[in-house]
Amino acid sequence: MKPFGYVTAQDPAAAIALVTGQPGAAFLAGGTNLVDLMKLGVAAPDLLVDVAGLLPDRIEPASGGGLRIGAGVRNSDLAADPRVRAEFPVLAQAVLAGASGQLRNMATVGGNLLQRTRCLYFQDVTKPCNKRVPGSGCPARAGEHRNLAILGGSPHCVATHPSDMAVALAALDAVVHVEGSAGPRTVPLAGLYRLPGDEPDRETTLERGDLITAVELPVLSYAAHSVYRKVRDRASYAFAVTSVAAALDVADGMVRGVRLALGAVAPVPWRARRAEQFLVGRPATAEWFGRAADAELAAAAPLPDSAFKVTLVRNVAVRMLCRLAGIPAGGTA
Amino acid sequence: MWHDGRVTTTDQTSSVLTLRVNGGAHRLRLDHRTTLLDALREHLGLTGTKKGCDHGQCGACTVLMGGRRVNSCLLLAVMAQGAEITTIEGLGGPEELHPLQAAFVERDALQCGYCTPGQICSAAAMLGEAAAGWPSAASAGLDGPVTLDAAEVRERMSGNLCRCGAYVNIVAAILDVSREAASQEEAR
Questions:
Q1: Which of A321, B32, B60, B152 could tie B50 with a disulfide, CB 3.0–4.6 Å?
Q2: Angle formed by the axes of helices A286-297 and A308-325, to 10°?
Q3: How many domains is chain B partitioned into structurally?
Q4: What is the CATH number of the domain that holds B9?
Q5: pLDDT value of residue A331
Q6: Given A85, A86, A236, which is nearest B137 (Cβ)?
Q7: A32 shares contact with chain B (CB less than 8 Å)
Q8: Mean predicted confidence (pLDDT) in B80-88
Q9: Does residue A17 contact residue A39 with C-beta atoms inside 8 Å?
Q10: Which helix (H) or strand (E) holds B169?
Q11: In CATH, what number is assigned to the domain containing residue B162?
Q12: Are residues B78 and B120 in the same domain?
């Protein structure tokens, strides 16, 4: 690891000024991903600006209803919060599905959103990777890609976003509060992330020095009727092979409202808007849920070893929608 | 070191800092690269805390920070300034075993023992999390209360690996302590 400076700033403005003014500086909060990447040589900042002590760390009612979650809230406190558990169960379940008890105690909400892919090539500095070293190539397409993207990838990168929490936040239309050198602004979660295209090293729309300060959950009348399901290679403490965040509002057997987001299948938390649009006004049945998932997955472009994920994510989505609708999933999953 | 009212920093790659460990305070100059784990083992001689993977994947380095379980391998020592750190040496020793230490001995919950300090520190905090009503991915619902059974303990302890595979007895030892605490609570 390269030697580096370390500072604690007293307020966000000071921290932002430090990182904005120094190309080699990075924000540090929980450190669970950044410190690991520094050990791996993937990240080599020359100054760490510790913001853990200055980020808002409370969960409060938002001005327009809903909840405002400070970016410094630890993952474990988010999942344990009684309002999150009662009003946004998909979010509590997503957080509890991720990492371990120890890591959830350390990791912050802001850092969780900005964690990097666990693609093996990205984490191995002896291998080419367009995300780590632009233009060096992507060995994943011809190599190990079993758990990489089936949606939203490009010839340059098929890495997946690793967060569970962000998948639930995508389904909930969360709004990210950002402070930068030009002042505060809000970004919808969907607008925070970029698809790789030919610049896989640019993962978000944030500028140097931008600091996430809070995440807001807007009111959603049926948010309490939501669920997160994660599929992984072992029972616990593993990144997702596929995950589904869903919320459903059914009236008289017809879908009145639906939120669906898919995890571990794309470079970003994947909001399944095509499936949602397809479903509204349609019967809440396993058959229609399957057709909606198919509509979303028509754009899937898996690689040979990741083709199974198309069927897997379809079946998990149908099963979760059926569970929320209170009907049997039939032979779909 | 300089101070402009908003920022306290050093222009160097090391800092003088105070670590509060097991009730004592230690003033050290540490390279910023030093993890809390290495500070404990290499600078304070507290070798009970183990280095396994050094990447937050095995839990052998688990200690308590402010009463919460954390991976000391992913914490820089400078990040732990001001926090109360408890290691396995602070939980109990040969003269006075922590109930979890006694239960691990009683249940033969180890083979090589390398993961054991991390298992015990993790379990000590985990029992507190469950008592506070924190749900887990293995809980039937999110609204509690939490009743620990083998499935709950396995899920909540999944951040601690045991390469010897002593899980059956680790789970039993933790459940012994959990039940003992519950019956004491009832008697009160």
A1: B60
A2: 140
A3: 2
A4: 3.10.20.30
A5: 53
A6: A236
A7: yes
A8: 97
A9: no
A10: helix B167-187
A11: 1.10.150.120
A12: no
Residues A279 and A289 sit within 8 Å (Cβ to Cβ): yes
Measure A296 CA to nearest chain B CA, in Å. 28
The residue in chain B having the minimum alpha-carbon distance to the alpha carbon of residue A17 is B7
Q: Same domain, yes or no, for B46 and B107? A: no
Percentage helix, strand, coil, to 5, in chain B?
35, 20, 45
Q: For tokens 């198309």, name the residue.
A: A310
Alpha-carbon gap: B64 to the closest alpha carbon of chain A (Å): 9
Closest-CA distance of chain B to residue A49, Å: 9
Q: Is A8 within 8 Å of B9 when comparing Cβ atoms?
A: yes
Domain boundaries for CATH 3.30.43.10 within chain A: 5-52
Domain ranges, residue B137: 99-187
Which one of B5, B75, B135 has the shortest CB-CB distance to A85?
Answer: B135
Q: Kindly report, residue by residue over A238-297, the tens digit of the pLDDT.
A: 999 999 999 999 999 999 999 999 999 999 999 999 999 999 999 999 999 999 999 999
Domain A5-52 classified CATH 1.10.3720.10? no
Output the CATH code of domain A55-324.
3.30.465.10
User: Does residue B7 carry a pLDDT above 90?
Assistant: no
The answer to whether residue A1 neighbours chain B at the CB level (below 8 Å) is yes
Chain B interface mutation, best of A54, A87, A102, highest count of B Cβ atoms under 10 Å: A102
A79 touches chain B (CB under 8 A): yes
State whether B74 and B115 are in the same domain.
no
Whether residues B108 and B183 fall in one domain: yes
Q: Buried b vs exposed e over B145-173: b needs ≥16 C-beta within 10 Å?
A: ebebeeebbbbbbbbbbbeeebbebbbbb
List CB contacts of A59: < 8 A, sequence separation 6 or more.
Answer: A67, A68, A69, A70, A73, A77, A78, A81, A83, A84
CB distance from A22 to chain B under 8 Å?
A: no
Query: Does one domain contain both B14 and B86?
Result: yes
> Is the same domain home to B104 and B177?
yes
